[in-house]
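Service request form, structural biology core

Requester: graduate student, group of Dr. S.
Request type: structure prediction, single chain
Budget code: on file
Notes: please return the result as structure tokens.

Sequence provided:
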Amino acid sequence: MSEVTTGLLERLSELLTLAGALFFLISAIGLLRLPDFFCRVHAPTKAGTLGILLLGLGAVLQSLANGDFLWLEELAILVFLFLTIPVSSQVLARAARRRGVAETERAAKEEA
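Core staff response, request fulfilled:
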């Protein structure tokens, strides 16, 4: 690969990594600030999934820029996480609903 392409891949990798870290920060803030369990599960699931996707894509681009072949393994990990994170949060929410975990009044009114 040429130096220009390598430099471009590295800069794009840095941008994606920074964006992924920002989404993880948003996810953590949502986890701390939201009112009930169901909302707290929702924030890390959505923002965290996008954050891990961006971080993983940044790692894949960095591997490609370095000429490594580890990007296939990183891509497989991304696919696995992208499929399992939403499913696990759905299972947590169903279990909480069956156990009778209370919602905030605002969330209950919006659902009705």
